[in-house]
Amino acid sequence: MGAGVHAFPLGTQLTNITRHMGQRDVDAALKSAGAEAQDWEGGTRIGACLHAFNRDWSRRVLGQGAVVLLITDGLDRDDPESLAREMERLHLSARRLIWLNPLLRWDGFAPKARGIAAMLPHVDSFRAGHSIASLEALAEAISKPDDLGEKARLMEMLRTG
Q: Are residues 54 and 26 in the same domain?
């Protein structure tokens, strides 16, 4: 990973895999990161993980002008109000908070899940994250500070609900 790039998978707990992802061999990096983050199949506790990040890591790794990529489906097991608080805190710590959600690939996607509804107001841009094309669009969106992705459309769905 490049200097200033950090990686923290969210599962049932927050795990810092930055040093593992810095290996030159991609297979070795993924193997050691997977060994470090062993809670892959336990569901997600996004709010609790963001709380741990905000408390323990945000001041250390989010320098001025930080762009945060949050890659998750937004399906959270915990309280949506605490999730919303942690999302707001993260958003205030970053220059831009971009959420990539693989569920946006579905035409009928709607922000019905409580976690998604709690997170959506606190991001600058909400984009699909499921294909090479969506990642190419992300590269373009990062250079456009006013890019909202699908946020405006989905916020309207939440309002009219």
A: no
In 3-state terms, what secondary structure has residue 151?
Answer: helix
Residue with tokens 């019905």: 112
Residue 99, strand partner residues: 70, 126
Q: What is the pLDDT of residues 16-73, one digit of tens each?
A: 788 888 888 888 888 887 777 776 666 688 999 999 999 999 999 898 789 999 999 9
Residues with Cβ within 8 Å of 1's Cβ and at least 6 positions away in sequence, in order, are 7, 18, 21, 22
Domain shared by 57 and 100, yes or no: yes
Looking at the structure, do residues 19 and 60 belong to the same domain, yes or no?
Answer: no
Strands of 96-101's sheet, edge to edge? 67-71, 96-101, 125-128
Q: For residue 144, what are the domain limits?
A: 44-160
DSSP string of 34-55, one letter each residue: HHH---TTS---HHHHHHHHHH
Q: Are residues 63 and 94 in the same domain?
A: yes
